[in-house]
Specification:
With 402 residues, the protein is of the alpha+beta class. It has helices spanning 3-41, 57-89, 109-115, 131-139, 182-219, 226-249, 265-283, 302-318, 349-352, 370-380; strands at 94-99, 104-107, 146-152, 155-168, 171-180, 261-264, 286-291, 297-300, 323-330, 336-342, 383-391, 394-401. Strands 2-1-5-4-3 form a 5-stranded antiparallel beta sheet. It has a 5-stranded mixed beta sheet with strand order 7-9-10-12-11, with helices on one face. Strands 6-8 form a two-stranded antiparallel sheet. A hairpin with a 4-residue loop joins strand 1 and strand 2 (104-107). It is elongated, with a radius of gyration of 38 Å.
Length: 402
């Protein structure tokens, strides 16, 4: 064999070896790339290619670098999600992300607090709170704003809801944002009633006072016919009674600002029980106090809060209650919750929406200002007073101090 033939054979062998080696290397590389892509697609990053062997060192190092870049980006996204989640948990707006089938993708702490539940995985859980609340979350769209009212441990709540459509990955969701507007509504109602009462009392007093004064002056004249005297006396007494009645409503528009100080609520509860004990015993009722959280310190006007509780206990006695219980606790939101419960005659459904309205009363000799005045005092304490239940199981009035 000539030297040319030998060189040709060696060259062919080298080329063939290179081709085979390249094919094997290329197949091995493709397998590694495919493995890495499958792992990344499954969000699995517990892999690392060997960089010690000389043959694949550079390629493996490149793959490991890509893996590290992906892992770094993933951790940055996780940190951003934590950051945004922390921000959402500290806003005063409830936020819930709801999928089309009703599953809740995300719900911040404010939303849970407003709804009065511990967790929310599906909106059907809201049926346990209120059917109207569930329907509002079910039907809310971008086109309009919804309102829903319901009761939780803080009393009656009214929320304003808005929604926006979004896509997360390939999943269609709606982002529902809602706020508690109970205090805004109550404040608006109170201002309206205060203005109305001021106008009414002013006009009535301006009209009735001269009548009372004139009738009393005429009564002092001698020689007045006895029948006329009797009529003038009736006019005078009726006028004075109306003046006294109207004057009582002025209390609603001039409640003294609370003088707040810290005090142990147990002492106030026990004082209320002592002050109402005789009235309760005459009616066969027993009033007790239960402290569900130790050492509840309230920062409020002690006299005004005592006035509210005495009014609620007396109302319970008048409703023929046999068992009256005052309870106090601190809830998860660090609010002080005081309940006055009784087993007396339930308040009718027709009256439940009206009992806090000035002038409204279910008693023959009532003035209709007790509960209205109590609610106004609570508003001045940045708190609420509401009827949370009244049925065959009992009646509960709830005071919330925020």
């Amino acid at each position: 064999m000539t030297s040319i033939h030998i060189i040709s054979a060696i060259t062919a062998s080298v080329v063939l070896t290179a081709i085979i080696s390249s094919a094997i290397t290329s197949r091995r590389m493709r397998k590694k790339v495919a493995y890495m892509l499958d792992a990344l697609e499954d969000k699995e990053l517990n892999f690392r290619f060997n960089e010690t062997r000389l043959r694949d060192r550079r390629f493996n190092r490149t793959l490991n670098r890509l893996r590290n870049i992906f892992d770094k980006e993933r951790h940055e996204i996780i940190e951003q999600e934590k950051y945004f989640g922390l921000m959402l948990d500290h806003v005063r707006t409830g936020v819930a992300v709801i999928e089309q089938d009703g599953r809740v993708n995300y719900c911040n702490n404010t939303a849970l607090a407003l709804l009065g539940i511990a967790t929310l995985g599906h909106i059907r859980q809201l049926r346990t709170v209120s059917d109207s609340l569930y329907n509002a979350f079910l039907t809310i769209t971008e086109a309009k704003e919804e309102r829903a009212s319901y009761y939780n441990e803080s009393g009656k709540m009214t929320i304003s809801m808005t929604a926006a459509a979004a896509t997360i990955g390939k999943v269609q969701v709606k982002v529902v944002a809602f706020n508690d507007i109970s205090s805004d509504i109550a404040e608006s109602e109170q201002q309206s009633w205060s203005k109305l009462i001021r106008v009414l009392t002013h006009e009535i007093m301006n009209t009735v006072t001269p009548i009372a004064s004139l009738s009393e002056t005429l009564l002092r004249f001698e020689g007045v016919d006895e029948e006329i005297r009797s009529g003038l006396d009736t006019i005078s007494q009726s006028s004075r009674g109306l003046i006294k009645f109207v004057d009582s409503y002025r209390n609603l528009t001039r409640v003294a600002p609370p003088v707040k100080k810290a005090f142990d609520f147990r002492e106030v509860a026990e004082r209320v029980i002592n002050l109402t004990r005789d009235h309760a015993m005459m009616s066969g009722a027993v009033c007790t106090y239960t402290e569900r959280t130790d050492s509840i310190i309230l920062y409020a006007d002690e006299g005004q809060i005592t006035q509210i509780l005495i009014n609620l206990v007396r109302n319970a006695i008048q409703a023929e209650a046999r068992k009256i219980e005052i309870t106090a606790e601190i809830n998860q939101s660090e609010h002080i919750i005081i309940n006055v419960c009784n087993d007396g005659t339930p308040i009718s459904k027709e009256s439940q929406e009206e009992i806090f309205v000035p002038f409204f009363t279910t008693k023959q000799e009532g003035t209709g200002i007790g509960l209205s005045l109590s609610r106004q005092i609570m508003r001045m304490h940045n708190g609420t007073l509401s009827l949370t239940r009244s049925d065959e199981r009992g009646t509960i009035f709830t005071l919330v101090f925020r």
